[in-house]
Model the fold of this input.
Amino acid sequence: MSGAFRVSVPATTANIGPGFDCLGAALTRYNHFTFASPSTAETLQIGVQGLDSDRVTTDASNLAYVAFQKFFQKIGQPVPALSLKIELDVPLARGMGSSSTAIVGGILGANAMAGHPLDAPALADLATEIEGHPDNVVPALLGGCRLATANDAGVATVCEVAWHRGIVPILVVPAFEVSTAQARAVLPTEYSRADAVYTMGHLALLIQALATGNGDWLQTAMGDRLHEPYRKSLIPGYAAVTQAARDAGAYGVTISGAGPTLLALGSVEKATAIAWAMAQAWQQVDIEIVDAKPLAIDNIGATVTAIN
Done:
């Protein structure tokens, strides 16, 4: 186990519309992780810089290092000493997959240092095992838009969902947080048959709308009854911001991940105006904005580069 490796992992947006816990997409915003042997006798050195870096632990509880350890436990080898440098550009606790970047970064860095014993499907399974569900880690690892589900035995199947280049993901990030635990806690434990049928139909339509770029279909397909009606109560200004997005021409708006970031889908021509309108709507209810911009779908996923 020698050499140094730089792993770049894209942010993600998950739970897209009716795609609760199964549909996610990689975005053109990244966290970077550099793995090497330590320069001293210490077994672990972690340095963090960038966005929210003061809130990331630099001991053995660091999530990227936890994933790094779990990889070596998986392959039955001792965990090597490690120097880990982390560069952050994905905001924490905002529904853009920051924890998934750490998990994917950790296992890919470990895989590289171990000589790449695991292939992509095995890495996806391990990342899902650590995260608990696949909708963020799978697109972070593989790129693109991905639908992930499991059979009755719990074996995951992942398929790529075509995303038309004319559909732009617009992410608006407010200056407050919603934890995943909070977002899970507000969900009901049971749903009606009508809500289940509604969700199945809308998810099927969403897959077709994303593939074809049909804006009329998207306007219907983004409807959800599983998570958004309950989680929107955790997001001050939700109604005003979503209405501003639609008034500016968005096909639809949904909560990104567990929130509070909101994801709008719009045309190339209207994307910037949609981002501005959403930011203005939040600011009008005295909520500061961390970021508001059109992004793009990252179709490559996490990358590993050897450093000489």
